[in-house]
């Protein structure tokens, strides 16, 4: 064996060792970031550390907070980001403010709600945790999910974890991020009624549902505005999520708003729509996943008697029949949303949708009057309907992770909007989502 061959083999061995080491590090991510002046243990992050500086972590997107003894605090929302490989992560936060009593709301990625109005006294800290899903666009070495131009800006696709600290005197003392060990992942597939919306005032139920669950379960929201069941598949979204799924995970599938607009040969509730939904079921079962179907929720359309008008035609019935034929759980959002809207009535129901007079948001020259898309209040209430659908179907492996403060919800008795006012994220968008 010549020296050249030995050198090549040694180089190959060294390369393999580096690859294996990187893979091991990927699996064993365990990072603790500490904030404020006076601390140096773990990874100390001063308020001057900006993510844009290239360190792979730091304050991001908005004006950074300020350092105080043992924490970073602000009188407005601030963001912290850290680069991470895709996967599920347990996040543990020490929240509080040494200078003020605080009420802190935490969102992650594209405005997923994780913690709602955590209250602390001056100088008091509260430890809170949840599990979050991170993903990227890669399907293989040379292929990616086909995302939309507007979607390219979404935090869900950017290869890092971003946390938003918001509320009254928000503050954080430490952030611990570690790879989750065998979490249950629920993959969400759908359209703009499900999607994680980055900007106010838009909201899908999929970005609200994490709030009701504790650490150990993550919700991987692959939904996108304007998608139908077949276009979701064609874009590679189903293929992508299946690369991340494991046996025992769930896949929740809710389409219909955009499917019903498709015309032509082979289209319709009982043809392409049903065939596409069956593809989700078949592909999920191949991998030991547990599929669940959801009927599309109603649009805000009332008749002269105050009853909700079905604007989805035969599509909800097609979902119900397929769920029965395939023996999969059914969450009937079409039925529950009708009950919910009628409980509000035509007048009060506008509080759950994107209905705002001109000038409510920066650059908004005209009134927003959207009877399909929810604001945070509407998304929150629909998310509760989904949880009740889980309870009706006795999805025990999901329900074991419900937070202790979750109270059973009756769509006929919705929460008052004023009770659920969440602090607004600082970023807004006037353009309506695709599929309006």
3D architecture notes:
With 436 residues, this protein is α+β, with helices and mostly antiparallel strands. 24% of the residues lie in helices and 27% in strands. It has two domains: 28-180, Jelly Rolls (Sandwich), CATH 2.60.120; 182-420, 3-Layer(aba) Sandwich (Rossmann fold), CATH 3.40.50. A hairpin with a 3-residue loop joins strand 8 and strand 9. It is globular.
SSE diagram, text form:
Elements: H1 3-27, E1 30-35, E2 43-45, E3 57-60, E4 66-68, E5 71-73, E6 78-83, E7 87-96, E8 102-108, E9 112-120, E10 125-134, E11 138-140, E12 143-144, E13 160-168, E14 171-179, E15 184-190, E16 217-221, H2 229-234, H3 237-244, E17 250-254, H4 269-286, E18 290-294, H5 315-326, E19 330-331, H6 333-348, E20 353-356, E21 368-374, H7 376-392, H8 396-399
Parallel strand pairs: 1-2, 15-16, 15-17, 17-18, 18-19
Antiparallel strand pairs: 1-14, 3-6, 4-5, 5-14, 6-13, 7-10, 7-14, 8-9, 8-13, 11-12, 20-21
């Amino acid at each position: 064996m010549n020296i050249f061959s030995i050198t090549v083999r040694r180089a190959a061995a060294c390369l393999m060792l580096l690859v294996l080491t990187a893979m091991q590090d990927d699996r064993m991510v365990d990072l603790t970031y500490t904030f404020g002046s006076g601390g140096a243990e773990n990874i100390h992050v001063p308020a001057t550390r900006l993510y844009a500086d290239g360190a792979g972590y730091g304050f991001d997107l908005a004006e950074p907070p300020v350092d105080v003894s043992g924490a970073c605090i602000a009188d407005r929302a601030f963001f912290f980001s850290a680069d991470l490989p895709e996967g599920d992560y347990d996040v543990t936060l020490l929240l509080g403010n040494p200078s003020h009593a605080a009420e802190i709301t935490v969102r992650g990625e594209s405005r997923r709600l994780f913690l709602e109005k955590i209250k602390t006294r001056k100088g008091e800290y509260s430890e809170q945790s949840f599990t979050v899903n991170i993903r990227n666009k890669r399907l293989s070495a040379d292929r990616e999910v086909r995302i939309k131009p507007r979607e390219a800006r979404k935090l869900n696709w950017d290869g890092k974890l971003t946390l938003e600290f918001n509320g009254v005197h928000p503050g954080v003392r430490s952030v611990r991020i570690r790879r989750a060990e065998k979490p249950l992942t629920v993959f969400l597939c759908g359209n703009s009624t499900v999607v994680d919306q980055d900007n106010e005032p838009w909201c899908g139920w999929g970005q609200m549902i994490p709030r009701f669950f504790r650490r150990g379960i993550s919700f991987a929201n692959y939904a996108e505005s304007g998608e139908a069941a077949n276009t979701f598949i064609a874009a590679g979204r189903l293929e992508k999520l299946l690369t991340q799924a494991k046996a025992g995970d769930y896949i929740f599938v809710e389409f219909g708003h955009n499917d019903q607009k498709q015309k032509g040969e082979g289209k319709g509730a009982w043809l392409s729509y049903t065939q596409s939904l069956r593809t989700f079921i078949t592909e999920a079962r191949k991998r030991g996943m547990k599929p669940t179907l959801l009927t599309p929720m109603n649009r805000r359309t009332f008749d002269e008697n105050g009853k909700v008008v079905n604007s989805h035609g035969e599509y909800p019935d097609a979902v119900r029949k397929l769920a029965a034929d395939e023996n999969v759980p059914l969450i009937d959002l079409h039925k529950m949303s009708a009950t919910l809207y009628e409980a509000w009535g035509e007048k009060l129901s506008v509080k759950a949708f994107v209905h705002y007079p001109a000038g409510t948001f920066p650059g908004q020259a005209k009134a927003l009057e959207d009877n399909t898309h929810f604001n945070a209040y509407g998304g929150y209430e629909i998310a509760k309907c989904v949880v009740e659908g889980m309870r009706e179907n006795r999805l025990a492996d999901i329900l074991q992770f419900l937070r202790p403060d979750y109270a059973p919800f009756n769509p006929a008795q919705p929460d008052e909007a004023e009770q659920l006012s969440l602090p607004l994220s600082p970023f807004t968008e006037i353009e309506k989502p695709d599929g309006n």
